[in-house]
Amino acid sequence: MKYLVIDVGGSAIKYALMDKQATILESGQVTTPSDSFDTFLAEIAGLYQHYSERIAGIAFSLPGVIDSEQGRSVTGGSLTYNNNRDFVADIQAICPVPVTIENDAKCAVLAEAWKGSLTNCKNGVVVVLGTGVGGGIFLNGQLYKGSHFAAGELSFLLTDSWHCKGDPYHYWGHDGGVRGLCRAVEHIKRLPPKSINGHQVFEWANEGDTEVCEALDAYTYRLAIQFFNLQSLFDPDVIAVGGGISAQPLLFQYIEQNMNYLEEHLPMHLTIPKVVRCHFMNDANLVGALQHHLQMTETPVP
After folding, report:
1. Same domain, yes or no, for 97 and 221?
2. What is the pTM of this model?
3. Using an 8 Å Cβ cutoff, are 77 and 10 in contact?
4. Where does the UniProt annotation place the signal sequence (predicted)?
5. Mean pLDDT by 10 residues, the chain (302 residues)
6. Which H helix or E strand runs over 142?
7. Inter-residue contact 162 to 201 (CB < 8 Å)
8. Range of 221's domain?
9. 43 Cβ neighbours under 8 A, 6+ residues apart
């Protein structure tokens, strides 16, 4: 039995034909329409027509706050045409097969719990370092969504405990995502805003650029602080870090150094977070969306 699995991002729609064991049999991507839901629907209809004779259902990973039980996209992230939409019903109007939806970061958690870094964990947290900071929480062997489907929206955590009324707000998603790291390097090197990406930052860091390494140290120090906060809140077995820059061994080297620093200098005794790399990289949302689909429609394969 095969499934069409679709990971909708702000700039690209990734899709894959997958079997029950999450083997990717075919894959590709198209540009995410930015103008209207009708244009988006036309892209999905094209994919369905191509695979309709071979699939038993469609699984979506979507940005935004997702009510997966009711099939609604409460918010659509940067895709505002998905705000307050009966998404599943709209898709099934043109694709008459079982359709499921889940938030993209929560799909990453499901992927890691099913076949990745959270396998055999009772409690875990996934932190995805992208443009902002995505995340998800796995508690007592289950994905935890919260009362409003928004648990794990780590980007919105306020990070400045000394904030005074009238001051600018500091969010983890602003400072803790890859864009925050790039912004710090751009400032140090007096480069124009949005002129570099994470790949360029780590190219310089791996070459031993002193200024960039200092920025990376400061960035991972702030990450380590938040990992201690997550450990205090949820007491997970593991914190798994994903996103494109998680492929960089230097990132984890600096995280470990700053975790050790905090362990030595914090005045209270705390459980030291176990921080690991996510097993799944760019395919995490696809794998998790499939697992969610299997959970919603049939007995999942162990």
Report:
1. no
2. 0.88
3. yes
4. none
5. 94 95 96 95 97 97 94 93 97 97 94 95 94 91 93 88 80 90 96 94 97 97 96 96 93 97 90 94 92 85 48
6. strand 142-144
7. no
8. 119-277
9. 13, 30, 33
